[in-house]
Amino acid sequence: MKDYKIILATENDRAEILALYDMQKGREFCPWDEDYPSNQTIDFDLSRDALYVLKIDGRIHAAISLEEDPDVDALECWNPNLNPSSELARLAVLSDEQSRGLGRIMLRFGMEELKRRGYKGIHFLVNKHNIKAIRCYATFGFNVVGECFMYDQDFLCYEKEL
Predict the structure, then answer these.
(1) Secondary structure of the chain as H, E, C letters
(2) 41-88 confidence digits (pLDDT tens)
(3) What CA–CA distance (Å, rounded) separates 82 from 122?
(4) Confidence of residue 5 (pLDDT cuts 50, 70, 90)
(5) Termini Cα distance of the chain
(6) How confident is the model at residue 1 (pLDDT cuts 50, 70, 90)?
């Protein structure tokens, strides 16, 4: 793989990130629609230093966010012994770069960043029919601790100690 760097996104990255998000919309198992993620989502992430991008030769190939979502945090399946815990969200990889390991690189980075910020655990939702994502997460040893229905989809609830 070419040399890459993962950095905090900036305002200058907005258009490229929106384009990356837009190319995910309508893909099988992707709950995103014309309203989400949006400029407001990027505003929220930028305001919290929570949006990271992977760049190769100055071009964004992937993005991930450190999420704050009270609805997901409130699910009863999460292990209270892993608090404080946080969520990774909005993992997106360029269509022509998928299945080449960039998703795993971004997940590994996100977990390391959460740990650096003092979190003890990580949790997130995965569409229960998204075999590609499930395979990706399996390499990290996440536990499936429950299921839920949110955002008009059935999800598996994944959790792991950092």
Answers:
(1) CCCCEEEECCHHHHHHHHHHHHHHCCCCCCCCECCECCHHHHHHHHHCCCEEEEEECCEEEEEEEEECCHHHHCCCCCCHHHCCEEEEEEEEECHHHCCCCHHHHHHHHHHHHHHHCCCCEEEEEEECCCHHHHHHHHCCCCEEEEEEEECCEEEEEEEEEC
(2) 999 999 999 999 999 999 999 999 999 889 999 999 999 999 999 999
(3) 8
(4) very high
(5) 26
(6) low
Q: Which domains are present in the chain?
A: 5-122 (3.40.630.30)
Q: Are 156 and 134 in contact (CB under 8 A)?
A: yes
Residue type for position 12: N
Selection from 161, 112, 110, 103 nearest residue 135 by Cα: 103
Task: State the Cα–Cα distance between residues 156 and 77, nearest whole angstrom.
Answer: 11
Task: Show the CA angle centred on residue 56, arms to residues 114 and 12, nearest 5°.
Answer: 75
Residue-wise pLDDT tens digits, 9-41: 999 999 999 999 999 888 877 778 888 899 999
Question: Which structure tokens are listed for 140?
Answer: 């990290």
